[in-house]
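Give me structure tokens for this 67-residue protein.
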Amino acid sequence: MTSAIDHTDQVERRVVAIPIKATDTCGFYKMREGALLPVKACWYCIHGDFQRDTPDPHQSGFCKFKK
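Here you go.
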């Protein structure tokens, strides 16, 4: 199993898109509508940008949090 990474610091001082993994998290997490599990992970966050049609748990995406 891959370990989750907390991206709070990167999101706070963000100047470029932040690459994330589905299991990562940060302090700006907000569960997206329709999420099946209440898991605090980027995959379930409204700011996480992933290809939802291929639910690969090892998939990479980008954080779309706006300051």
